[in-house]
Amino acid sequence: MNLASLYRPLVAVDPLFTAGVGLEEVLIVALKVVVAFTLLLVSVMLMIWFERKLHADMTNRVGPNIAGPFGLLQTLADGIKLFFKEDLRPAAGDKRVFGLAPYLTLIPAFLMFTVVPVGGDFHNGDGTVTWFGNTTHLQVADPPIGILFVLAMSSMAVYGIMLAGWSSGSKYPLFGSVRASAQMVSYEAALGLSLVAVLIKSGTLSTHEIVASQADGWNWNLWVTGFIPFIVFMIASTAELNRPPFDLVEAEQEIVGGFHTEYSSIRFSLFFLGEYMNVVTMSGVMVTLFFGGPDGPIPFLTSLGWLWGIFWFVLKVVAFCFTFIWFRATLPRFRYDQLMDLGWKLLIPLSLGWLIALASLDLARSEGWNRGLVGVIAFGGLVLMGLLLNAAVNAGQRKRLAGEGVD
Amino acid sequence: MELTSTWYLVLAAILFAIGTVGLLVRRNPLVMFMCVELMLNAVNLTFVTFGAELNDIGGEISVFFVLVVAAAEVVVGLAIIVAIMRRRSGTTADDISVLRG
Amino acid sequence: MELVVFLIAGFFAILGAIGLIASRNPVHSALSLVMSLFAVAVLFLNQDAQFLAAVQVIVYAGAIVVLFLFVIMLLGVDESEDLSIEPIAGQRPVALLVGIGVLVLSVFFVAVSADGGATGAESLTAPKVDSITQSSTVSATEQLTDDVPGADDEQVDGAENDPNINQLGRALFTDYVFAFEVTALLLTIAVVGAVLLARKPKGELAPMPDIVVRSAHSPSSTSSNSPDGDGEVAPADDAAAASTEETA
Asked: Which residue on chain A is closest to C164 by alpha carbon?
């Protein structure tokens, strides 16, 4: 069965669809979706175990070691326990939105993962695999606006948290959720700006193309864009994920749980599933943008190059998850005003200024100007603007404190 | 049954009409504002449809600008609503009938 | 296939719009608006405007409606509006009449004219090429390119074989660069204005003017506001008076 007219708008650049969308293509996409979802769920389970074990190790404890070998099945045990708990619904809240909110956190988390390339051989090929005569990319979807889709889904993730707090019908969850959404919205800007630096260097929005443009090992966007966009993206994504040290959202009142105070049983587990899924996905996105995705040396078995791609991708994602857990174990929590200051007064101007400097260097290269001179002017200007901004912020703060009296 | 641009334009007209009715009927200032946003979206859809029909990128450019202006307008409009509502809670659009205050 | 997507997205758009105007709770209205916005983004995708679809979700659904929800939640405006009260007699039928009039007029124009009323000629200077099917990494086969009119004729340097965002960017920074700069200025002004408007006022405020609520209920509203001395949220008796107006 071959449909007469292929579906043009989302045909994208996946070589699977060049010959039209028929039953075979639909089945392959469905298979990819099932595999990706299963992979994500298993990785979330392992991530939770990894976090508890590693955090315990860093704080001189043992961590889960009873359920399964090395406590590997602890997450499963917790999930089953949560499943059997009583499902409480607050009387004073909005029941429909209360039920909807966990799904609004979970669905964007999974959708984000669909555009992340998890494997493929970019050295000897173009990152595609051919199974049963069908060539396809090793990602669920490759829309031409790939990275914008990631940004869109992280914008949608704000809704789950905001509505969860509001629909609980009580003060502390509302307070916590409003702070959480303010935090997430503020750091989205820094996220987007550091992303644009990558886009300038890669020249495309499609995740497959971004990974292909870094396929050399020496072309990783990590050093091609300078290290600053990566650092800004890392900090901004930690804040987006509500991970420590930016986790006052969840541990704000320390005993009361912030936006998920009133949630129990399955809904609570959905929130946590969504949060850890977001961690894994964001790590995947960072690896794709800055670390070349599945890029890595292929010492032997070159015919199975795509498997090597998966191996290197998983290794890098695990390294990032390790870093997130490391942050949790070592860093103290940010106070809310310190957090907002960091986002608005440091990260946004820094990423914006760096972006302008990178763009001017790019322009210099294409116009044939003296790149060294342009670099000095651009980065010198960046430093100067940074100093001016710092002076202005300090002056404003001094005036405010003098007006109110020192707190 | 072929999908021509007429279908999109009729859908946009329906959305615009629903937004108009909502704007005229509701009294909560925030809901009225949201109806205005719905109308703007209907217009965006019309622009994109004509852009696709005439193969002109200008349709999408217009939508780009409408989006930016709508964002700016929402920011200022909500600031005004916040400033008014802070002083009297529970106001509706009928109550805000004098320029002072 | 595009027809199926159009029908589904159109259904959800209309459902969201009706939910927006018919919900009593403003938060439900906001969520219905989000559904409508998503449906419109899918319709953009259906017409090959991918960048706009993504920006629609990021800006409209992801920032503007979040702002609405912030205001709704923080100001506590989520007491449900009583939809059965009509402040001006006969307002609702007239509004319905106006809505139907608008709808009938627009649909009439669209249905009567050819090409859905598109009276312009096809663009020569800013062509929009069907970007997916001619993306440079896909080998353009015959069946993909034969239904894009004029794509081979226009040779605006590099406009062919460009993804949608490249075409958009090129037009934005060459033909429409002045408008672009003006919108940058507009956004700056909006931010400054919003910060100024939303600041807590310092010092004494003028006494509140008497408001005459021209509503079908409660004539007791003329003296219900006490002067606010320091810009705090209206004191309890004011709120009580306001709520008795609403529930009368």
From this structure: A144
Q: Hey, are the CB atoms on B48 and C36 less than 8 Å from each other?
A: no
Q: Do residue A145 and residue C25 have CB atoms under 8 angstroms apart?
A: no
C1-83: CATH, from 3.20.20.70, 1.20.120.1200, 1.20.210.10, 3.40.50.300: 1.20.120.1200
B84 burial level (CB within 10 Å; 0-12, 13-18, 19+): middle
Query: Hey, what long-range contacts does A126-129 have (CB within 8 A, 24 or more apart)?
Result: A126/A212, A127/A208, A127/A211, A127/A212, A127/A215, A127/A294, A127/A309, A128/A15, A129/A306
Closest by Cα among A190, B26, A133, B101 to C20: B26
Instruction: For chain C, positions 19-48, list CB contacts with chain A under 8 A.
Output: 25, 27-28, 31, 34, 45-48
Q: Could you report the per-residue pLDDT of C195-224, keeping only the tens digit for each? A: 888 777 776 666 666 555 554 444 443 434
Residue B98 belongs to a domain: no
pTM over 0.90, yes/no = no
Considering only CB atoms, C45 lies closest to which of A9, A96, A178, namely A9
- Could you give the count of Cα atoms lying within 13 Å of A297 in the half-sphere of its Cβ? 3
Q: Which of C55, C73, C129, C148 to mutate to test the interface with A (most CBs of A within 10 A)?
A: C73
Spans of all domains in chain A: 15-334
List, for residues A66-82, the tens digit of each pLDDT value: 888 888 888 888 888 88
Domain-located, residue B95: no
Both tokens of residue A280? Answer: 């894994």
DSSP letter string over C114-141? GGGG--SPPPSSSB---TGGG-TTS---
CB–CB of C81 and B92 under 8 A?
yes
The tally of domains found in chain B comes to: 1
∠ CA B3-B6-B8, nearest 5°, is: 75
Contact criterion met (CB < 8 Å) for C47 and A181: no
Query: What is the count of residue pairs from A and C with beta carbons less than 8 Å apart?
Result: 106
Give the domain ranges of chain C: 1-83, 92-118, 122-141+153-199, 205-248
Q: Do C128 and B85 touch (CB under 8 A)?
A: no
C-beta atoms of C69 and A166 within 8 A? yes
Q: Are A326 and A172 in contact (CB under 8 A)?
A: no
CATH of the domain at B64: 1.10.287.3510
Give the residue from B101, B92, B80, B100 showing the smallest Cα distance to B29: B92
Residue ranges making up the domain that contains B37: 5-87
Residue B96 lies in a domain: no
- What does the alpha-carbon distance between residue A246 and residue A336 come to, in Å, rounded to a whole number? 9
Angle, to 10 degrees, between the axis of helix B29-53 and the axis of helix C65-75?
A: 180
Is A3 near chain C, with CB under 8 Å? yes
Q: What is the mean predicted confidence (pLDDT) over A260-274? A: 81
By Cβ distance, the residue of C21, C118, C171 closest to B50 is C118
Reported as a single tens digit per residue, the pLDDT across A3-26 is 323 444 443 466 777 766 778 888
Closest CA to C164 of C137, C132, C141: C132
Distance separating alpha carbons of residues A153 and A274, to the nearest angstrom: 13
The position carrying tokens 């009873």 is A66
Q: A149: closest CA among A199, A207, A107, A198?
A: A207
Cβ atoms of residues B47 and B59 within 8 Å = yes
